[in-house]
Specification:
By secondary structure, the protein is mainly α. It has one domain. About 55% of the residues lie in helices and about 0% in strands. The protein starts with 9 loop residues before the first helix and ends with a helix.
Length: about 100
């Protein structure tokens, strides 16, 4: 039953996959191929990004930042294709993601 609707990163979704079933093991293995950081680090990164309190940064953006862990302004702008970030905002986000590489 769905109780909340919130965008999650792939790393955060791993804790909801039941690894005790064959299907769950398959899903878990597939997701792990694409995850760049561990679920614990993903939660920490989410909290740090939320603390920035940027109006332009929505939950969907945060989930994608965690998934992709961008290193350059160009990579970051691909996530924020619907809004424009100024240099200062981009710099703050990239400085934060560097800690989680």
């Amino acid at each position: 039953m769905i109780t909340k609707k919130k965008p999650l990163s792939m790393a955060e979704s791993l804790e909801f996959v039941d690894k005790d079933t064959d299907k769950g093991k398959e899903i878990h293995g597939f997701i792990k191929k694409f995850v760049k950081i561990k679920p614990k680090k993903a939660k920490e990164l989410r909290e740090e990004l939320k603390k920035m309190d940027m109006l332009k940064m929505r939950e969907e953006h945060i989930a994608k930042i965690i998934d992709l862990v961008p290193e350059t302004e160009e990579e970051l702008n691909k996530i924020f294709n619907d809004v424009g970030l100024d240099k200062d905002e981009s710099k703050k986000i990239l400085e934060t993601t560097k800690k989680y590489k």
